[in-house]
Every structure is written in structure tokens, then in C-alpha cells.
């Protein structure tokens, strides 16, 4: 979240920045049993596709008789090219940042930036604007798990603070979902351990996500996802989670995530001294989606 926001506003949001700890095996083919389906990210060298990460955060907070509301949104548009594998275990997805959109509206600031507009002024969001035209090297293992991310080496300003992340890996893991290790049937569920990273709290723990295959329609697997979040215990801070889950659609024919969504709602109460209490209600949406090419075809179909 933006650093112009008071610390306690985005504190509960950063709790839920998710980094997969493991990505089970998958395949894009039908299982040996015709009634089962297996899933696999397409890591074929030379393939190309585009996707976008959208983060939207709505926060309402109150300190005594003062109330502040804020709406923050940023979108990173990536063009991806799968490069040759370093070895049999890893490959690299080159993520070129084609476009950046960022907006923030609150009692303290009002910014609306889009790199596609020539006269758009990023103002305090300049560290985000500098990402346009840069390339991130994202190393994936054979299962599609993000192993490491090498950011551009010529960044003049650190955008991680405005993004509300402690590690660039967090930007790319929403697209690469943990998938089941073996073929599954409709209504079957599987668990994966996710690692949440909270740079503000210095927290480093695991959270379990349970995914369920709801149905397969036209070679697309529809998934339900539920996070079992345990808020951290901190003196003077109480966090209650109202909602932590989402959905995803995986294309069996292309081996690409078509779209994924995580919705996280929480309320927090924090003591800020002198018998004063700050309360905040937050709603965070994390969306990853394939983008359509100018020809009207989904980018996952491009080679």
C-alpha cells in the first residue's frame, strides 16, 4: 500500500501478501482415468502470453472522532516470454512491464496515473511509473513455482514500499497457482502450504489454502479457494478476518490460468498510545488475469 497512508491503515492488508511455499505437480492433459483431470502450468520455452495483476484496497479507519477513507488501486500489465530452461529443473519467464496504472484517493492524496496517457503525472507514485519498459526475470521450477525474481538493475527508486511488499516475488505468485500433484475428480480438494510475507510486521509464517475443483466446462477447470488465515498476535493489535478466499479458472488446453481472484476482508483495532484506539476496516482484492491481444485472441494461445 502507499506509504502516504498511516502505518496502521495498511498494516492488516500487508498481512495477506501471499507467497506460495510450494507448487504441487500438474498437467494440462486428461488423467489416465477419463473421469479425472490433471493440471499443469505451460512452461514451454518460446511461448508468449500477457497477463495483468490488479490490486484494489478499500480502507475505512477511525481514530477517536476522526474518520478517513481511502481507495487504492494499481495494475501491472506484463508481456511474458518463456526462455530456454537453465537446466532440467528451472526455466525463466521474462516479464516485460508494458503498462502501469495506479490511483489513490483519500483525505490525504488524490492521484490517477496511467502510463498509456502521455500527459499522465505519477506525482508521488513515480517509483511505480519507472517500472514501465523494465523486465523482471522470474525463475520457475518444473512445477511452475516461483523460485526467485531478479528485478531490473537500473531502478532509480525503490517501488517496493509503495507496492506494500517486502519481496518482488509477491507480484508474480498470484498467477502461478498451487495445483494438485495427481489427477483429481470434480468436487475433489487439495491443500497447499502458502507463505505469507508481512514486511511491516517482520512476520514469516505459513497459511494453508484449500482448493476445490468445482467443475470442468469447455476444457476450463473452475476452482474454489479458501485460505485458513491466522492473524498475528501482537500487543495492542487485534485483527479479525471476515473473508479469505476466492476462485480461479484454469484452461486445460493452453495450460494457463485464465483468471484468479482472492478477496480478503478484515477489521483491526490498534492501540496508539494515550488511551487512543485506531480502528480500520479493509477489503483487499488480488486479481490476476490473462489479457487479450489486439487480434482478439487470448495471449496464452500465442507462440
Tell me about this structure.
The protein has 303 residues and is mainly β. The protein has one domain: Lipovitellin-phosvitin complex, beta-sheet shell regions. The protein has three helices and 13 strands; from the N terminus they run H-E-E-E-E-E-H-E-E-H-E-E-E-E-E-E. Strands 1, 2, 3, 4, 5, 6, 7, 8, 9, 10, 11, 12 and 13 form a 13-stranded antiparallel beta sheet that branches.
Keywords, please?
3 helices; disordered N terminus; Lipovitellin-phosvitin complex, beta-sheet shell regions; 303 residues; mainly beta
Topology:
Blueprint: H1 7-14, E1 18-20, E2 48-63, E3 66-82, E4 90-106, E5 110-114, H2 126-129, E6 135-141, E7 146-150, H3 160-163, E8 189-198, E9 203-217, E10 220-228, E11 237-251, E12 256-271, E13 277-290
Antiparallel strand pairs: 1-8, 2-3, 2-13, 3-4, 4-5, 4-6, 6-7, 8-9, 9-10, 10-11, 11-12, 12-13
Q: What proportion strand?
A: over 45%
The number of distinct helices, counting runs of at least 4 residues, comes to 3
What is the total number of structural domains?
1
Major beta sheet, specifics?
A: 13 strands, antiparallel
Shape: globular
Mean pLDDT over the full residue set: 78
Order of helices and strands: HEEEEEHEEHEEEEEE
Give the CA-CA distance, first to last residue: 35 Å
Share of helix, binned: under 10%
CATH fold assignment: Lipovitellin-phosvitin complex, beta-sheet shell regions
Structural category is mainly beta
